[in-house]
C-alpha cells in the first residue's frame, strides 16, 4: 500500500469515526468521548482533506464547518406541496374537528382506528423553521425552506452545518423528509450577548434567530450558531428493489429476533447490541434496523402509519423528538396537551402547541386535503402568553381595500419572546365590546403566539382621565367620507403608525389619534412585531365574532393610503416580488409623483430615481434591473397581486385551476388554449358574470362580485393594457412533458393505492399532460386500479376502458 492509499484509508476511517460520534452525541445524546477528542479527530480529518483534495467527499463530516459564501439563495419548487395544519384553541374545537373527520370516515366506509387500536399519533409542535430535505441515493442533495408552500429557498450549504441532520443515510434510497430547524434557548442567550457587545440588534426569540441563521449567506456564521433539528415526516420515498442480507454477526446476536413491531412507539430497553457495536458490524449504527424494515417490505408502501414513519426516520439517522404519543381518543390527547402546557417551558426549545395526526397512512390519504390544509391533522395551540400594558394612543390605519383599522399604541412590553408596542383593535365594534379607552391598562396577548391583540381592559385601574375613542367620519388621509359596512375584517397585513410626511403628491395630515406625535397611519417604521393573521376556520370564538363585525371603509378609490397599500401588496413577495421596492420606497415614489398605479412601476428609469433621496447610481441601477427581471409572472401570482377585494391566494389558485382543467364556467368558455397572455385577461375576464365565476367550486358570491367589479372598471383595464404595452407577461406553470404516454389522456382512479398518495398520482398525471376525471365515461382512457376497487372498475370493464395497475402506471412515467 503506497502513501496515498494509506492517507485515503485514514481519511475514510476518520470520516466513519467522526460520523459515529456525531450521531451518538447530536442525535442519541449518548456521547462516548470528550468534546476535545471529537474536535481533535475532526481537525485531523479537515487537515488531511485540505492537503489531499482528490479525496474530497460531499458527505464528509468536514463539510459541516461551513465556509461557503453565497450572493443569494436560489428558488426551489417543492416536489410535494408543503401544507399547514389548521389550528384549534380549545377542547371543544378539537371535538368539532374529530366530529368532522368521523363523519367523513363513516361516509367513506372506514374508521379512524383501522390501523390497530391506535387512532392518533400526537407530537409536540416545535416553534422553529420548517425545512425540506431531499436525499438522492442516500445522500443529502438539497435542503430548502418552506417558503409559500410551493416555492422555497435552497439553503443546502447551511443545512449541512447542522450536526443532527445526516449527510448520508445508511441505505441508498431516494427520500424527501420534512422537519423543524430550531435554536436552543441557551444558545440564543449566547448569540444575543455577542450581538449586543458588537452593537447589533438582539434576536427577539429563538424562532427569529433560527430563521435568520438559516438564511445567512455565509455558512460559516451558521455553523457557529449550533442549530438543531427534529424531523417528523416523510413526504416521498423510493425503495430500491433489493433483498437485504443480514450480517452473520447480527444473525448470531440477540438483535436477530427484533421485529418491525418492536421498532414502533417508544424504543424498548432491551439486551441488544448497542449503537457503537452495531457501527462496527455494519458500518452504520442504524443500517441493520433499516435493512430489517426494508427487507420485510415487498412494495413502496412503507411506512403504513405515522408511528412507523417516526421509527423509520430514527433508524435512518434523523433526530426525532422523543415525546410523541399514541392516543386512542381525544380525551387522551387532552391529557397530553395539559401535561405539556405545564411542561413546555422546561425544554431547551420553544413549543407552541401539539400536532394531532390520524395514525394510519391509508386513512390520511382517504381523508385528503382541503384547499389549504390536511383534513387528517390539526394543530392544538397552547394558550397565548398574556401581559398587561397601557394604551398610550389609538391611531387609524388605512389598508389597500380602504378598510380603516384602529391600532393601539402601547407602552412597550415583552410578550411571548417579542417586544410589542402596537396591537390591533380590529374595528369599532371590538373597541366598544372591550370598552377600550386611551390611558387604559389592558391585557394583551399574541394569539397563537403570533399576533399582538388587546383582549380585555383592567377597569379597576382607571383614574378617570381615560379618553374614549371614536372612529372618524372622514378618511384621515384624503378627507373622503367613511362608510360602515357589515363585512369581514381585512386580512391584509396591519401596518403601524410612523411620523407623517409633509406635502406629497396627494393626501394630508388630518388626525384621528389623540396624540400630537402622529395622526397618520401608513407604513411601518418601526414595524409591528408581527403581521395580522387572517382569521381562519380554526380561529378562536372571539376571533370569529370579530370577523363578523362591521368595518369602516374610505369610499375614495383614489385615496393615497389605499393606492399606496395596493402597490405595496402588488410588489410584495407573494405578488411580483420586486426586490428593493419596499414600503418606504413605494411611499417616496408616490410622493414624488414617479408612480400612481401598478403599471407606472414598469416604466421607472434611472433618470426618475437619481434625483431622489436614498438613490445613488448603484441603487437606482439595482432597482431598475430588479423591476425588469420581474416582468414575467405566473397567472395565480398575478391575480393575487392585483389586490382584488375578497380574492386572496386560494381564490387565485382556484381560478387558475379552473383554467388549467378547462373548467366550463356556465355558458362562458375560455378561449381555445386557455388564458396565456395579459391580452387574454383584458379581453375575456371583463365578460365573465357573477354567477359564472361562482360556478368555480370554492368561489363565493362576494369574491365573484369583486372580480366582476374589478375587471368591469375601465380604469383597471387601462392599467392592465399599459402593463401589457410595457412588456409584462403572464404564464401558466408549464406541466408539458416530452412523454406522450399520458399527454391528453384522461385518467380515473379507484381503490386504495399503496405506492403513491392520490394527490401525488394526480400531480404526476397533470405534469405529464394528462387529465383527471372523477367518473368513468366514454372519454376515459385509463382506469388506475388499486386494492379494494369499487363500481368504477366494473363500469370500466363493461365500457372497454383500459385498466392499469400501479406498476403499469410507473412504467408510463
Topology at a glance:
Layout: H1 3-27, H2 35-51, E1 75-77, E2 87-88, H3 91-107, E3 120-126, E4 129-136, E5 139-145, E6 151-153, H4 156-159, E7 174-182, H5 185-197, H6 206-214, H7 219-224, E8 228-238, H8 248-251, H9 275-282, H10 287-295, H11 306-315, E9 325-327, H12 330-343, E10 351-358, H13 361-367, E11 377-381, E12 386-398, E13 403-415, E14 418-424, H14 428-434, E15 441-447, E16 451-457, E17 482-486, H15 541-547, E18 550-554, H16 560-571, H17 583-591, H18 606-609, H19 617-629, E19 632-634, H20 635-641, H21 649-660, H22 678-684, H23 690-693, H24 701-711, H25 714-725, E20 729-731, E21 746-750, H26 758-767, E22 771-773, E23 782-785, H27 791-799, E24 802-804, H28 806-812
Parallel strand pairs: 2-11, 19-20, 21-22, 21-23, 23-24
Antiparallel strand pairs: 1-6, 3-9, 3-10, 4-5, 4-7, 7-8, 10-11, 12-13, 12-15, 13-14, 13-18, 15-16, 17-18
Helix content: 25-40%
Largest sheet: 7 strands, antiparallel
- Give the terminus-to-terminus CA distance: 48 Å
Rg (CA only): 29 Å
Structural summary, described in words:
Among the domains are: 87-126 and 322-381, 2-Layer Sandwich (Dna Ligase, domain 1); 386-556, Nucleic acid-binding proteins (OB fold (Dihydrolipoamide Acetyltransferase, E2P), Beta Barrel), CATH 2.40.50.140; 567-731, DNA polymerase, domain 1 (Orthogonal Bundle); 746-812, Rossmann fold (3-Layer(aba) Sandwich). It is globular, with a radius of gyration of 29 Å. The longest helix is centred in the first third of the chain and has 25 residues, at 3-27. The strands form six sheets. Strands 12, 13, 14, 15, 16, 17 and 18 form a seven-stranded antiparallel β-sheet that branches. A five-stranded mixed β-sheet has the order 2-11-10-3-9. A four-stranded antiparallel β-sheet has the order 5-4-7-8. Strand 15 (441-447) and strand 16 form a beta hairpin. With 813 residues, the chain is of the alpha+beta class. It has 28 helices and 24 strands. It starts with a helix and ends with a helix.
Amino acid at each position: 500500500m503506497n502513501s496515498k492509499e494509506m492517507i485515503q484509508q485514514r481519511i475514510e476511517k476518520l470520516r466513519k469515526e467522526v460520523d459515529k460520534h456525531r450521531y451518538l452525541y447530536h442525535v442519541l445524546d449518548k456521547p462516548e468521548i470528550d468534546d476535545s477528542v471529537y474536535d481533535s479527530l475532526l481537525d485531523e480529518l479537515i487537515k488531511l482533506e485540505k492537503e489531499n483534495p482528490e479525496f474530497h467527499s460531499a458527505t464528509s463530516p468536514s463539510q459541516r464547518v461551513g465556509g461557503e459564501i453565497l450572493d443569494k439563495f436560489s428558488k426551489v419548487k417543492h416536489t410535494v406541496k408543503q401544507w399547514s395544519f389548521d389550528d384549534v384553541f380549545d377542547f371543544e374545537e378539537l371535538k368539532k374537528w374529530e366530529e368532522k373527520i368521523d363523519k367523513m370516515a363513516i361516509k367513506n366506509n372506514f374508521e379512524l382506528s383501522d390501523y390497530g387500536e391506535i387512532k392518533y399519533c400526537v407530537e409536540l409542535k416545535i416553534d422553529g423553521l420548517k425545512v425540506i430535505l431531499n436525499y438522492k441515493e442516500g445522500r443529502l442533495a438539497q435542503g430548502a425552506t418552506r417558503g409559500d408552500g410551493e416555492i422555497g429557498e435552497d439553503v443546502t450549504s447551511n443545512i449541512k452545518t447542522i450536526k443532527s441532520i445526516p449527510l448520508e443515510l445508511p441505505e441508498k434510497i431516494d427520500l424527501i423528509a420534512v422537519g423543524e430547524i430550531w435554536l436552543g434557548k441557551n444558545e440564543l442567550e449566547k448569540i444575543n450577548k455577542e450581538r449586543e457587545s458588537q452593537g447589533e440588534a438582539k434576536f427577539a426569540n429563538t424562532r427569529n434567530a433560527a430563521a435568520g441563521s438559516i438564511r445567512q449567506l455565509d455558512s460559516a456564521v451558521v455553523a457557529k450558531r449550533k442549530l438543531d433539528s427534529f424531523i417528523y415526516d416523510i413526504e416521498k420515498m423510493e425503495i430500491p428493489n433489493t433483498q437485504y442480507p443480514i450480517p452473520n454477526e447480527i444473525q448470531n446476536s440477540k438483535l436477530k429476533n427484533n421485529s418491525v413491531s418492536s421498532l414502533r412507539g417508544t424504543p424498548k430497553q432491551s439486551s441488544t447490541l448497542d449503537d457503537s457495536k452495531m457501527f462496527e458490524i455494519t458500518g452504520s449504527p442504524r443500517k441493520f434496523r433499516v435493512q430489517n424494515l426494508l427487507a420485510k417490505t415487498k412494495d413502496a408502501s412503507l411506512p403504513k402509519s405515522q408511528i412507523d414513519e417516526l421509527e423509520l426516520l430514527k433508524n435512518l439517522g434523523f433526530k426525532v423528538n422523543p415525546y410523541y404519543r399514541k392516543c386512542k381518543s381525544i380525551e387522551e390527547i387532552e391529557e397530553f396537551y395539559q401535561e405539556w402546557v405545564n411542561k413546555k417551558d422546561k425544554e431547551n426549545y420553544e413549543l407552541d402547541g401539539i400536532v394531532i395526526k390520524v395514525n394510519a397512512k391509508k386513512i390520511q390519504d382517504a381523508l385528503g386535503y382541503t384547499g389549504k390544509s390536511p383534513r387528517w391533522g390539526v394543530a392544538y395551540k397552547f394558550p397565548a402568553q398574556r401581559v398587561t400594558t397601557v394604551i398610550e394612543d389609538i391611531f387609524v390605519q388605512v389598508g389597500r381595500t380602504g378598510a380603516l383599522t384602529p391600532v393601539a399604541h402601547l407602552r412597550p412590553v415583552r410578550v411571548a419572546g417579542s417586544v410589542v408596542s402596537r396591537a390591533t383593535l380590529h374595528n369599532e365594534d371590538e373597541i366598544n365590546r372591550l370598552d377600550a379607552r386611551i390611558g387604559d391598562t389592558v391585557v394583551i396577548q399574541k394569539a397563537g403566539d403570533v399576533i399582538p391583540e388587546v383582549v380585555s381592559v383592567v377597569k379597576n385601574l382607571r383614574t378617570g382621565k381615560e379618553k374614549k375613542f371614536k372612529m372618524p367620519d372622514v378618511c384621515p388621509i384624503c378627507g373622503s367620507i367613511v362608510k360602515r359596512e357589515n363585512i369581514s375584517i381585512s386580512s391584509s397585513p396591519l401596518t403601524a403608525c410612523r411620523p407623517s410626511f409633509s406635502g406629497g403628491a396627494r393626501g394630508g395630515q388630518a388626525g384621528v389619534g389623540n396624540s400630537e406625535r402622529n395622526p397618520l397611519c401608513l407604513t411601518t417604521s418601526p414595524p409591528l412585531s408581527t403581521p395580522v393573521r387572517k382569521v381562519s376556520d380554526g380561529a378562536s370564538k372571539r376571533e370569529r365574532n370579530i370577523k363578523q363585525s362591521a368595518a369602516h371603509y374610505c369610499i375614495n378609490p383614489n385615496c393615497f393610503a389605499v393606492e399606496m397599500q395596493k402597490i405595496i401588496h402588488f410588489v410584495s413577495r407573494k405578488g411580483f416580488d420586486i426586490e428593493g421596492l419596499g414600503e418606504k420606497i413605494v411611499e417616496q415614489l408616490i410622493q414624488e409623483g414617479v408612480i400612481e398605479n401598478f403599471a407606472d412601476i414598469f416604466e421607472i428609469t434611472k433618470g426618475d430615481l437619481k434625483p431622489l433621496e436614498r438613490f445613488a447610481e448603484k441603487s437606482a441601477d439595482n432597482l431598475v434591473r430588479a423591476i425588469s427581471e420581474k416582468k414575467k409572472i405566473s397567472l395565480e401570482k398575478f391575480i393575487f397581486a392585483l389586490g382584488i377585494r375578497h380574492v386572496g391566494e386560494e381564490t387565485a389558485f382556484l381560478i387558475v385551476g379552473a383554467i388549467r382543467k378547462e373548467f366550463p364556467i356556465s355558458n362562458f368558455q375560455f378561449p381555445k388554449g386557455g388564458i396565456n397572455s395579459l391580452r387574454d385577461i383584458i379581453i375575456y375576464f371583463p365578460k365573465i358574470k357573477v354567477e359564472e365565476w361562482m360556478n368555480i367550486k370554492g368561489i363565493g358570491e362576494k369574491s365573484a362580485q369583486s372580480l366582476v367589479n374589478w375587471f368591469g372598471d375601465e380604469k383597471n383595464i387601462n392599467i392592465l393594457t399599459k402593463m401589457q404595452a410595457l412588456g409584462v407577461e403572464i404564464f401558466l406553470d408549464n406541466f408539458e412533458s416530452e412523454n406522450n404516454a399520458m399527454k391528453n389522456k384522461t385518467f380515473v382512479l379507484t381503490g386504495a393505492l399503496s405506492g403513491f398518495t392520490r394527490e401525488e398520482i394526480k400531480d404526476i398525471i397533470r405534469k405529464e399532460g394528462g387529465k383527471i376525471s372523477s367518473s368513468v365515461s366514454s372519454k376515459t382512457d385509463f382506469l388506475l386500479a388499486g386494492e379494494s376497487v369499487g363500481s368504477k372498475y366494473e363500469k370500466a370493464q363493461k365500457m372497454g376502458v383500459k385498466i392499469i395497475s400501479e406498476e403499469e402506471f410507473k412504467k408510463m412515467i
